[in-house]
Protein backbone atom coordinates (compact mmCIF):
# COMPACT_ATOMS: atom_id res chain seq x y z
CA UNK A 1 0.00 0.00 0.00
CA UNK A 2 1.34 3.42 -0.97
CA UNK A 3 1.99 5.69 1.99
CA UNK A 4 0.39 9.12 2.17
CA UNK A 5 2.83 11.96 1.46
CA UNK A 6 4.17 13.84 4.46
CA UNK A 7 2.43 17.19 4.87
CA UNK A 8 3.78 20.27 6.60
CA UNK A 9 1.33 21.19 9.34
CA UNK A 10 1.55 23.92 11.96
CA UNK A 11 -0.24 24.48 15.25
CA UNK A 12 -1.38 27.98 16.18
CA UNK A 13 -2.84 28.16 19.67
CA UNK A 14 -4.30 30.94 21.76
CA UNK A 15 -7.24 32.17 23.76
CA UNK A 16 -8.44 34.17 20.72
CA UNK A 17 -10.53 36.50 22.86
CA UNK A 18 -11.34 37.61 20.20
CA UNK A 19 -9.42 36.50 17.12
CA UNK A 20 -8.28 39.50 15.03
CA UNK A 21 -6.41 40.41 11.85
CA UNK A 22 -3.10 40.20 13.66
CA UNK A 23 -3.55 36.49 14.34
CA UNK A 24 -4.48 35.94 10.71
CA UNK A 25 -1.47 37.95 9.53
CA UNK A 26 0.85 35.72 11.53
CA UNK A 27 -0.76 32.62 10.08
CA UNK A 28 -0.43 33.83 6.50
CA UNK A 29 3.19 34.83 7.09
CA UNK A 30 3.93 31.29 8.27
CA UNK A 31 1.93 29.76 5.43
CA UNK A 32 3.94 31.61 2.79
CA UNK A 33 7.36 31.61 4.43
CA UNK A 34 7.50 27.91 5.23
CA UNK A 35 5.24 26.55 2.51
CA UNK A 36 2.86 24.94 4.97
CA UNK A 37 0.08 22.68 3.77
CA UNK A 38 -2.14 23.37 6.75
CA UNK A 39 -2.41 25.47 9.91
CA UNK A 40 -4.48 24.03 12.73
CA UNK A 41 -6.02 26.63 15.03
CA UNK A 42 -6.39 25.48 18.64
CA UNK A 43 -8.45 27.55 21.07
CA UNK A 44 -7.57 27.14 24.74
CA UNK A 45 -10.68 26.24 26.73
CA UNK A 46 -9.34 27.43 30.10
CA UNK A 47 -8.27 31.04 30.66
CA UNK A 48 -5.90 30.65 33.57
CA UNK A 49 -4.51 34.19 33.60
CA UNK A 50 -6.05 36.26 36.47
CA UNK A 51 -5.37 39.47 34.46
CA UNK A 52 -7.93 38.51 31.85
CA UNK A 53 -11.12 40.54 32.25
CA UNK A 54 -13.21 38.80 29.61
CA UNK A 55 -15.93 36.34 30.59
CA UNK A 56 -16.51 35.15 27.03
CA UNK A 57 -17.06 31.41 27.01
CA UNK A 58 -14.96 28.95 25.06
CA UNK A 59 -17.80 28.11 22.67
CA UNK A 60 -18.04 31.76 21.57
CA UNK A 61 -14.29 32.08 21.10
CA UNK A 62 -14.18 28.82 19.17
CA UNK A 63 -16.99 29.92 16.86
CA UNK A 64 -15.31 33.27 16.18
CA UNK A 65 -12.15 31.42 15.13
CA UNK A 66 -14.21 29.17 12.86
CA UNK A 67 -15.80 32.18 11.17
CA UNK A 68 -12.50 34.02 10.75
CA UNK A 69 -10.58 31.14 9.17
CA UNK A 70 -13.41 29.74 7.03
CA UNK A 71 -12.38 31.46 3.75
CA UNK A 72 -8.87 29.93 3.78
CA UNK A 73 -8.74 26.25 2.78
CA UNK A 74 -5.29 25.84 4.39
CA UNK A 75 -6.70 26.75 7.81
CA UNK A 76 -8.45 24.14 9.95
CA UNK A 77 -10.13 24.38 13.34
CA UNK A 78 -8.58 21.97 15.80
CA UNK A 79 -10.71 19.69 17.98
CA UNK A 80 -11.99 21.30 21.19
CA UNK A 81 -10.00 20.25 24.25
CA UNK A 82 -11.76 18.38 27.01
CA UNK A 83 -12.88 19.98 30.26
CA UNK A 84 -9.76 18.64 32.01
CA UNK A 85 -7.39 21.62 32.50
CA UNK A 86 -4.44 19.40 31.56
CA UNK A 87 -5.99 18.93 28.13
CA UNK A 88 -4.78 22.44 27.30
CA UNK A 89 -1.15 21.51 27.82
CA UNK A 90 0.84 21.84 24.62
CA UNK A 91 2.15 18.28 24.76
CA UNK A 92 -1.41 16.92 25.00
CA UNK A 93 -2.51 19.11 22.10
CA UNK A 94 0.33 17.89 19.91
CA UNK A 95 -0.27 14.23 20.80
CA UNK A 96 -3.96 14.58 19.95
CA UNK A 97 -3.20 16.15 16.59
CA UNK A 98 -0.43 13.67 15.83
CA UNK A 99 -2.94 10.86 16.22
CA UNK A 100 -5.36 12.62 13.89
CA UNK A 101 -2.68 13.52 11.32
CA UNK A 102 0.04 10.86 11.60
CA UNK A 103 1.75 11.68 8.29
CA UNK A 104 2.90 15.16 9.28
CA UNK A 105 5.97 17.30 9.65
CA UNK A 106 5.07 19.53 12.57
CA UNK A 107 5.62 23.24 13.16
CA UNK A 108 4.49 25.42 16.05
CA UNK A 109 3.63 29.10 15.51
CA UNK A 110 4.33 31.12 18.62
CA UNK A 111 4.98 34.67 19.85
CA UNK A 112 8.48 35.60 20.95
CA UNK A 113 7.52 36.18 24.60
CA UNK A 114 5.86 32.79 24.86
CA UNK A 115 8.79 31.15 23.08
CA UNK A 116 11.06 32.47 25.83
CA UNK A 117 9.15 30.31 28.32
CA UNK A 118 9.46 27.12 26.27
CA UNK A 119 12.18 25.50 28.45
CA UNK A 120 9.69 25.55 31.37
CA UNK A 121 6.86 23.85 29.51
CA UNK A 122 5.63 20.44 30.57
CA UNK A 123 7.60 17.74 28.69
CA UNK A 124 9.29 20.45 26.65
CA UNK A 125 11.99 18.12 25.33
CA UNK A 126 9.39 15.98 23.54
CA UNK A 127 7.81 19.01 21.92
CA UNK A 128 11.13 20.49 20.85
CA UNK A 129 12.09 17.28 19.13
CA UNK A 130 8.67 16.96 17.49
CA UNK A 131 8.28 20.48 16.05
CA UNK A 132 10.09 23.27 14.31
CA UNK A 133 9.26 26.61 15.93
CA UNK A 134 8.06 29.62 13.92
CA UNK A 135 8.56 32.66 16.11
CA UNK A 136 6.51 35.82 15.59
CA UNK A 137 8.39 38.93 16.72
CA UNK A 138 6.72 41.23 19.18
CA UNK A 139 6.83 44.96 18.56
CA UNK A 140 8.76 46.99 21.12
CA UNK A 141 5.80 49.39 21.23
CA UNK A 142 3.17 46.69 21.78
CA UNK A 143 0.69 48.12 24.35
CA UNK A 144 -0.05 44.62 25.61
CA UNK A 145 3.47 43.98 26.85
CA UNK A 146 2.60 44.71 30.46
CA UNK A 147 -0.87 43.23 30.22
CA UNK A 148 -0.45 39.52 29.66
CA UNK A 149 -3.49 37.78 28.24
CA UNK A 150 -2.05 34.33 27.82
CA UNK A 151 -2.56 30.95 29.37
CA UNK A 152 0.63 29.21 30.51
CA UNK A 153 1.09 27.46 27.18
CA UNK A 154 -0.88 29.38 24.56
CA UNK A 155 0.12 33.02 24.67
CA UNK A 156 -1.79 35.67 22.80
CA UNK A 157 0.41 36.24 19.77
CA UNK A 158 1.32 39.78 18.84
CA UNK A 159 -0.45 41.04 15.68
CA UNK A 160 1.56 41.32 12.47
CA UNK A 161 1.27 43.45 9.37
CA UNK A 162 -2.20 44.90 9.81
CA UNK A 163 -3.06 47.22 6.93
CA UNK A 164 -4.60 50.70 7.12
CA UNK A 165 -7.90 49.15 6.04
CA UNK A 166 -9.10 45.66 6.97
CA UNK A 167 -7.10 43.36 4.66
CA UNK A 168 -8.68 40.83 2.37
CA UNK A 169 -8.38 37.27 3.67
CA UNK A 170 -5.78 35.97 1.23
CA UNK A 171 -2.15 34.98 1.09
CA UNK A 172 -0.87 38.56 0.80
CA UNK A 173 -1.62 39.28 4.45
CA UNK A 174 1.53 39.27 6.52
CA UNK A 175 3.87 38.69 3.57
CA UNK A 176 4.08 42.04 1.82
CA UNK A 177 7.66 42.19 0.45
CA UNK A 178 7.70 45.97 0.80
CA UNK A 179 7.22 45.66 4.56
CA UNK A 180 10.23 45.07 6.77
CA UNK A 181 10.50 44.02 10.36
CA UNK A 182 11.20 46.69 12.90
CA UNK A 183 14.93 46.31 13.53
CA UNK A 184 14.58 46.56 17.32
CA UNK A 185 11.92 43.84 17.37
CA UNK A 186 14.00 41.64 15.09
CA UNK A 187 17.14 41.98 17.23
CA UNK A 188 15.20 41.29 20.43
CA UNK A 189 13.49 38.26 18.91
CA UNK A 190 16.82 36.91 17.66
CA UNK A 191 18.26 37.26 21.17
CA UNK A 192 15.30 35.41 22.68
CA UNK A 193 15.61 32.57 20.18
CA UNK A 194 19.33 32.21 20.76
CA UNK A 195 18.83 32.12 24.54
CA UNK A 196 16.17 29.43 24.27
CA UNK A 197 18.35 27.40 21.90
CA UNK A 198 21.25 27.58 24.37
CA UNK A 199 19.00 26.50 27.23
CA UNK A 200 18.06 23.34 25.35
CA UNK A 201 21.59 22.75 24.08
CA UNK A 202 22.78 22.43 27.68
CA UNK A 203 20.30 19.54 27.95
CA UNK A 204 21.63 17.98 24.74
CA UNK A 205 18.47 18.93 22.84
CA UNK A 206 18.59 20.50 19.38
CA UNK A 207 16.05 23.28 18.84
CA UNK A 208 14.89 24.10 15.30
CA UNK A 209 13.46 27.58 14.87
CA UNK A 210 13.05 30.49 12.48
CA UNK A 211 11.68 34.00 12.81
CA UNK A 212 8.59 34.93 10.84
CA UNK A 213 9.35 37.79 8.48
CA UNK A 214 6.40 40.09 9.01
CA UNK A 215 5.87 43.57 10.36
CA UNK A 216 4.60 44.00 13.92
CA UNK A 217 1.97 46.56 14.88
CA UNK A 218 0.67 47.51 18.33
CA UNK A 219 -2.78 45.96 18.60
CA UNK A 220 -4.01 43.21 20.90
CA UNK A 221 -7.19 41.44 21.91
CA UNK A 222 -6.95 43.29 25.24
CA UNK A 223 -7.79 46.58 23.53
CA UNK A 224 -10.58 45.01 21.53
CA UNK A 225 -12.23 43.72 24.68
CA UNK A 226 -11.83 46.97 26.57
CA UNK A 227 -12.95 49.36 23.85
CA UNK A 228 -15.38 47.47 21.65
CA UNK A 229 -18.24 49.73 22.75
CA UNK A 230 -16.57 53.10 23.18
CA UNK A 231 -14.36 53.16 20.06
CA UNK A 232 -16.26 51.78 17.02
CA UNK A 233 -13.27 52.02 14.67
CA UNK A 234 -11.56 49.30 16.69
CA UNK A 235 -14.08 46.80 15.33
CA UNK A 236 -12.31 46.87 11.96
CA UNK A 237 -9.48 44.95 13.65
CA UNK A 238 -11.53 41.76 13.29
CA UNK A 239 -12.99 40.16 10.14
CA UNK A 240 -16.55 41.18 9.27
CA UNK A 241 -18.14 37.81 10.21
CA UNK A 242 -16.54 38.12 13.65
CA UNK A 243 -17.83 41.68 14.01
CA UNK A 244 -21.34 40.48 13.28
CA UNK A 245 -21.03 37.56 15.68
CA UNK A 246 -19.84 39.81 18.51
CA UNK A 247 -22.70 42.24 17.94
CA UNK A 248 -25.31 39.48 17.61
CA UNK A 249 -24.27 37.79 20.84
CA UNK A 250 -23.60 41.04 22.73
CA UNK A 251 -20.00 40.17 23.58
CA UNK A 252 -17.50 42.66 25.04
CA UNK A 253 -20.31 45.00 26.12
CA UNK A 254 -18.73 46.11 29.40
CA UNK A 255 -15.88 48.48 28.51
CA UNK A 256 -15.32 49.64 32.10
CA UNK A 257 -11.58 49.05 32.05
CA UNK A 258 -8.88 51.73 31.92
CA UNK A 259 -6.21 51.95 29.28
CA UNK A 260 -2.82 50.51 30.25
CA UNK A 261 -0.99 52.99 32.50
CA UNK A 262 1.79 53.50 29.93
CA UNK A 263 -0.69 54.31 27.14
CA UNK A 264 -2.43 57.67 26.76
CA UNK A 265 -4.50 56.78 23.72
CA UNK A 266 -5.45 53.96 21.46
CA UNK A 267 -2.89 53.20 18.73
CA UNK A 268 -3.44 54.69 15.31
CA UNK A 269 -3.72 52.13 12.52
From TrEMBL:
<comment type="function">
    <text>Catalyzes the reversible adenylation of nicotinate mononucleotide (NaMN) to nicotinic acid adenine dinucleotide (NaAD).</text>
</comment>
<keyword id="KW-0520">NAD</keyword>
<dbReference type="Pfam" id="PF01467">
    <property type="entry name" value="CTP_transf_like"/>
</dbReference>
<comment type="pathway">
    <text>Cofactor biosynthesis; NAD(+) biosynthesis; deamido-NAD(+) from nicotinate D-ribonucleotide: step 1/1.</text>
</comment>
<dbReference type="InterPro" id="IPR005248">
    <property type="entry name" value="NadD/NMNAT"/>
</dbReference>
<keyword id="KW-0808">Transferase</keyword>
<protein>
    <recommendedName>
        <fullName>Probable nicotinate-nucleotide adenylyltransferase</fullName>
        <ecNumber>2.7.7.18</ecNumber>
    </recommendedName>
</protein>
<feature type="domain" description="Cytidyltransferase-like">
    <location>
        <begin position="11"/>
        <end position="160"/>
    </location>
</feature>
<keyword id="KW-0548">Nucleotidyltransferase</keyword>
<keyword id="KW-0067">ATP-binding</keyword>
<comment type="similarity">
    <text>Belongs to the NadD family.</text>
</comment>
<dbReference type="InterPro" id="IPR004821">
    <property type="entry name" value="Cyt_trans-like"/>
</dbReference>
<keyword id="KW-0547">Nucleotide-binding</keyword>
<dbReference type="InterPro" id="IPR014729">
    <property type="entry name" value="Rossmann-like_a/b/a_fold"/>
</dbReference>
<keyword id="KW-0662">Pyridine nucleotide biosynthesis</keyword>
<dbReference type="GO" id="GO:0016779">
    <property type="term" value="F:nucleotidyltransferase activity"/>
</dbReference>
